[in-house]
Amino acid sequence: MNLIILGPPGAGKGTQAVRLAEGLGIQHLSSGDMLRAERASGTPLGAKVAEYMDSGALVPDEIMIEAILNRLEGGGDTGVLLDGFPRTVAQAESLDEALGKAGRPVDGVLELKVPRGAIVQRITGRRVCPKCNSVYHMEFRRPRQEGVCDNDGEALIHRPDDTEEVIVSRLKNYEKQTTPLTEYYAGKGILHAVDGDGSVDEVCARLERVTRQLSGGR
Ligand code: AP5
Q1: Among candidates 110, 65, 92, which has minimal Cα distance to 213?
Q2: Where does residue 200 rank: exposed (0-12), middle (13-18), buried (19+ CB within 10 A)?
Q3: Are 83 and 2 in contact (CB under 8 A)?
Q4: pLDDT value, residue 101
Q5: Which is nearest to 110 in space by CA: 201, 168, 193?
Q6: How is residue 59 annotated by DSSP?
Q7: Which residue's CA is the closest to the ligand 1 atom numbered 3?
Q8: CA distances from residue 186 to 64, 116, 180, 183 in whole angstroms, order as listed
Q9: 94: exposed, middle or buried (C-beta count within 10 Å: 0-12, 13-18, 19+)?
Q10: Exposed, middle or buried by CB within 10 Å (0-12, 13-18, 19+), for 175?
Q11: Nearest to 31 by CA among 102, 91, 100
């Protein structure tokens, strides 16, 4: 099954994608994690994408499309859950073309709907592990030991793009560049809006209800 999880910054895409992909036995491909790995490796491309990310702007389509499609080609055929890609109509069209050619179209797009107040609260309290990308929250998902990743003991960090100023710009860019995707996928009859307000478990149960329907109740 090939799925996309869509939603504004801080909606909970990454948190839910990890659980959903594991449950479905499919690959989880996060464009944000991929870009953060690139910048951490210190390549010229990493330095270039860091400038966009830290200002809250989207990385240009030509860079993103090539990077993601290369990863998809390398992946197996069990299916994929895309988190953070596509983010523009041009990215969605390129994805459709590539998956169409490979005979594995997008089965469903899960759109997380979260009120603005909850988004800001989720982003400002987020802490992440720079080593394994695990995501925590100072109030809603606390690590066992304060400031330390449960998985590998690494010190948790505040993402550089999680400042108030950059969050405003990320949300604006989402409205302008990514919301047109809801119309794009609604037109194809594969958009599923899911209430993303509530606990992580509650939202996960709602998403799983949709993926069960998509897989024919299996
Ligand atoms: P990316 O990393 O994809 O960031 P994003 O889309 O802004 O999403 P976030 O990672 O901020 O949030 P999320 O929805 O995954 O929420 P999370 O699960 O962490 O992209 C970063 C940048 O890279 C972009 O700005 C852009 O520059 C670039 N980029 C990436 N993809 C690109 C593309 N395709 N094209 C161009 N540029 C691209 O949850 C947030 C917090 O809330 C966590 O602390 C979590 O613990 C908590 N939480 C989650 N769910 C709940 C819940 N139900 N209740 C309470 N707390 C919750």
Answers
A1: 110
A2: middle
A3: no
A4: 87
A5: 193
A6: P
A7: 32
A8: 23, 22, 10, 5
A9: buried
A10: exposed
A11: 91
Range 2-114+175-214 has CATH code 3.40.50.300? yes
Q: Which residues are catalytic?
A: 13, 87, 126, 159, 170
Read off the pLDDT of residues 111-130 as tens digits, 9 standing for 90 and up. 999 999 999 999 999 999 99
Place of tokens 């799983």: 208
Q: Which residues of the chain have pLDDT under 70?
A: 74-76, 217-218
Residues 87 and 173: their CA atoms lie apart, in Å, by 10
Ligand 1 environment, Cβ below 6 A: 7, 9-15, 31-32, 35, 52-53, 56-59, 64, 84-85, 87, 91, 122-123, 125-126, 135-137, 140-141, 161, 170, 198-200, 203
Q: How far is the CA of 122 from the centre of ligand 1 (A)?
A: 10
Instruction: Say which amino acid occupies 89.
Output: V
pTM: 0.95
Strands 2-6 and 80-83 turn out to be parallel
Token pair for 65: 């499309």
11 CA → ligand 1 middle, Å? 7
Radius of gyration of the chain (CA): 17
Concatenating the DSSP letter of every residue in 113-168 gives E--HHHHHHHHHTEEE-TTT--EEETTTB--SSTTB-TTT-PBPB--TT-SHHHHH
